[in-house]
Amino acid sequence: RGVVVLGNFDGFHRGHQFLIRSARRIAADGRAVGVMSVEPHPRQVFSPEAAPFRLALPEQKHCTARRIGLDYLFEPVFDRAFAGMTPCAFIDEVLCRRLGVSHVVVGADFHFGAQRAGTTRTLAQECTARGIGVTVLPLQGGFSSTAARQAILAGDMRQARRCLGRPWEGVLDAGRLAPDQIRPPAGRYLVRTQRSAQAGPVRLDADGRILSPDSLPRRIEFLDRHD
């Protein structure tokens, strides 16, 4: 009987945060609030040859869910069988049988089911018929995963921070940005780590390697670009 917010939640940007705050107001009577976010990201299944685009890896998504105090994160495996579910099958199997939620919150651009055939109107009609409330909320001023990706690809870390509501965090793997994560352009950046409030410069090369005079932890926050 909890409240669930549906979406990809890549980066938990400010638009996502708006949806979650709204879900908490709906659940003010004590119901649990959580999000549903599939893994891997659908684009990784349908376009495996695409350039790395993820704002956050699964481990970061899980940490953010804990940090902001969600009661649960439902993360089914996204494969072609899951993608092939009709909108009504998704509502019956996932929302009713597996989750048993009382209310669903989505953004105005939400689509679901095979070929993205399900719209917010479909969701409202079919959920209401099954006793599940639906809240559809307007998009929030350009705060989207797409906008955050465009800023990072341009090296505009300040704009990425405005979109995300916090600095973008890169994950290092053997001294390079993780292969599945989006990559800013090569250059000099001002970064900060969780173990130090003080920022320092690093250089990012075209292969995603981080060159720094200091040893770096697995996660670093990109604050600004220097060139």
Placed side by side, the strands forming the largest sheet appear as 7-6-11-8-9-10
* C-alpha termini separation: 51 Å
Q: Kindly state the number of beta strands.
A: 11
Q: How much is the radius of gyration in Å?
A: 19 Å
Topology of this protein?
Elements: E1 3-6, H1 14-26, E2 33-36, H2 42-46, H3 58-67, E3 72-74, H4 80-83, H5 87-99, E4 103-107, H6 120-129, E5 133-137, H7 145-153, H8 157-164, E6 168-173, E7 176-177, E8 187-193, E9 196-204, E10 210-211, E11 219-225
Parallel strand pairs: 1-2, 1-4, 2-3, 4-5
Antiparallel strand pairs: 6-7, 6-11, 8-9, 8-11, 9-10
Helix pairs in contact: 7-8
Could you explain how this protein is built, in words?
By secondary structure, this protein is an alpha/beta fold. Helices cover 32% and strands 24% of the residues. The protein has eight helices and eleven strands. The protein has helices spanning 14-26, 42-46, 58-67, 80-83, 87-99, 120-129, 145-153, 157-164, and strands spanning 3-6, 33-36, 72-74, 103-107, 133-137, 168-173, 176-177, 187-193, 196-204, 210-211, 219-225. The strands form two sheets. The protein has a six-stranded antiparallel β-sheet with strand order 7-6-11-8-9-10. A five-stranded parallel β-sheet has the order 3-2-1-4-5, with helices on both faces. A hairpin with a 5-residue loop joins strand 9 and strand 10. The termini are far apart. 28% of the residues are buried.
Summarize, please.
By secondary structure, the chain is an alpha/beta fold. It is built from 8 helices and 11 strands. The chain has helices spanning 14-26, 42-46, 58-67, 80-83, 87-99, 120-129, 145-153, 157-164; strands at 3-6, 33-36, 72-74, 103-107, 133-137, 168-173, 176-177, 187-193, 196-204, 210-211, 219-225.
